[in-house]
Amino acid sequence: MNLTKINYEADEKWADVVPILQQEGENSLAQIAYTDEYSQATSYLRAVMASNEKSERAMELTEHIINMNPAHYTVWLYRADIIKTLSLNPVKELDKLEAISLNHPKNFQVWGYRQSIMSIIPTLPPKELSFLAKVLAKDAKNYHVWAYRQWLVEYFSLWPTSEGKGSELFFIDSLLTNDVRNNSAWNHRYFVLFGRNVESVMPLDIFTQEINYAMAKIDTAPQNASAWNYLKGILRKQKKGAKEVEHFALQYVSLEDESKIRSSHALDLLAEIWAGEASDKACQALDLLSNKYDPVRANYWQYRKSLIKAAQAA
Amino acid sequence: MSQASSAGDKTSGKAPTLNIALHTRYWVRCLKTFLPTGYQEQDSSRLVLAFFILTSLDLLGGLETHTTPAERADYISFIYSCQHPGGGFRSFPGTDFGLQHATTPENARWDPASVAGTYFALGALAILGDDLSRVRRQETLDWIRNLQHPDGSFGDLAAGGKNATVDGGQDVRFCFLAVLVCAIVGEEQSASEAVGKCVDVDRLKQFILDSQTYDGGIARKPNCESHAGSTYCAISVLKLLDLLPTDAIPSLAENTNQVSPTFLQNLLHWLSHRQTTMLYDYRDTDIFDEEDDEEDHTSDTPGFAVINATPALPPSLLAFERMDLYSSDRPITAGLNGRVNKPADTCYSFWAGATLAILGHGNLIDRDANRRYLLDKTQHRIGGFGKFPGVPPDILHSALALACLAIHGEPGLKSVDPVFCVSKEVKARLDKVTWKRRD
Ligand SMILES: [Zn+2]
């Protein structure tokens, strides 16, 4: 159906409704040059909401307004309520959402709404994950989509039990193979492995597995902050300190031969490892970062140095 | 880059300057003429837009000179017309059914007050010199209390009353806005006491601590990706609750209630790494997927556009497998990004920069490099600032760029409170509203 040019005033289907015009004085703030179409449609929306009408025509009206302003928050809540009141088919509604989600992927409401519709569906619809893959193919770092996907993993218990095809780990790995700097994918990896409340289900060698995974990815791109952050995060989670990766980091750094320095993140991690027992080397690494390898953060590296000095003085 | 779309002066090698008169003209236009139809998608954030227009004009020192007392009185009436009978403010007039249509238990949910509408209304009233005496204080406090969820986070919408349906939640942005509202509306002088009187502070604190991710930044909610906008909201809450240490070098004898030194060190590491020389220029259209261009400037929350997703990086910029080695004779230009491995975006100069300032570590970024990014790269020749170099200005990015410059002491701008995002004069007014107890 073409919803773009509905004239409610001329449509006899709407003849019984008295529109409620928006009230605001002359000198209001942030006045927007609304289109006539939007002003008219929202006036009819206020009228059906005031009488709490749950009907087929109210559904159409909400769709019309969503197309003009997907950030209109009550229109989504109202639409979800119509679906529930009229017991409309939620799976059909998901199909309908596909176009608007792809046209407005960065809209906040559309994903919250999807979650509320999905909550009344008992099992994961077969098309859902391929739909999300399609959205992520347009923007692999879409924050709303990832937040929604986390909810989906928890709600339908999609925790990975293997790295096999169809698992969350397989999907994440394919994204990281495509772009190893996709920080959203790294974060999702951490979530599916460590975000579950029941810690006991984790295999014991999970830390080794993930440290190896991060190190392999770092080796393909030594200047990629996401992979280093992940490595450090796993080490912290393991609560064993970073000493065990000193040798690994030294592959990208040499204090004796500067021409061998290939990663500022390796220097940073080594400065952290050395801060306690080899503070001179730590300070040398921090100076290299300040002066040459990451001068935009010179103040931060000097601050780190001041922490080492303060610890020595204490 | 072409001279045409930037107001900065780069060719002569002179230090860039902020053209106060030009920016004042931009903001007066936003205040007094209709915003273009493109803003229709931000209709439900009208009071947010209003706040950013007013606070920017105030920071530029132009509010009183460019408006008459009668106009300001009209603006104040408009804001109060958005006040909800059950406490709080709507964030736009569009849900109001009008006087002829009674609110009933059945339709109340379709005309809620919003937590964004409420803070930005209170802030805008204070900027306009109103004494807030017409604010329904007790109803607002009851309404805020009802917004809190059992996990400590806050919803953003409810239609008043202690048992009204709460919509939205699990988002640190709403926590931040709810805390600001409590701090203003509560009668206790200190924010932490006012908030503690109204909501469950322990659970709120836990929600925020649980939202710190493995890389040290803070996410919208637990398990999500760290994000500078969320981090700003989270740290502002901790600041108002007196949970941040005041010493730059953390001492071993911390107040046990405060965040741990580890929390803070991981956070500072992440925040300082938001500064980046990775910029992109929208005029290099060949590196862009056209579809990505359109969505970006839209507000994506009810009333509070923080999370600004950006297009995936073009492949040419992904060839970033090198360290940036700078020669000392070339000044660095570096803005801030909102997430790891994303390019700089004007608004994050504020979200991340202000967070560092709140933590007492505003100098951990290279302020000059950031200033060059704003003034040389994203400042626009018609005034205002764009999201990226070469992008037309919008209200949110223009306001946040000014606020960031004000935090760093830009000449010609009033000094700003980084948490409330209003000038310190206005903040002083908020501290002195009549109901604040003098102890
Ligand atoms: Zn932005």
From TrEMBL, chain A:
InterPro entries: Prenyl_trans_a. It holds the Pfam family PPTA. PROSITE patterns: PFTA (PS51147). Its cofactor is Mg(2+). It is an enzyme of class 2 (transferase). GO terms for molecular function: CAAX-protein geranylgeranyltransferase activity; protein farnesyltransferase activity. Its EC number is 2.5.1.58, 2.5.1.59. One of its GO terms (cellular component) is protein farnesyltransferase complex. Keywords: Magnesium, Prenyltransferase, Repeat, Transferase. Belongs to the protein prenyltransferase subunit alpha family. This is Protein farnesyltransferase/geranylgeranyltransferase type-1 subunit alpha. It comes from Gomphillus americanus.
From TrEMBL, chain B:
SUPFAM superfamilies: Terpenoid cyclases/Protein prenyltransferases. Transmembrane segments: none annotated. Residues 18-422 form the Prenyltransferase alpha-alpha toroid domain. It comes from the Eukaryota. GO terms for cellular component: CAAX-protein geranylgeranyltransferase complex. InterPro entries: PGGT1B-like (IPR045089), Prenyltrans (IPR001330), Terpenoid_cyclase/PrenylTrfase (IPR008930). Keywords: Metal-binding, Prenyltransferase, Repeat, Transferase, Zinc. GO terms for molecular function: CAAX-protein geranylgeranyltransferase activity; metal ion binding. Its cofactor is Zn(2+). Belongs to the protein prenyltransferase subunit beta family. PANTHER family: GERANYLGERANYL TRANSFERASE TYPE BETA SUBUNIT, GERANYLGERANYL TRANSFERASE TYPE-1 SUBUNIT BETA. This is Prenyltransferase alpha-alpha toroid domain-containing protein.
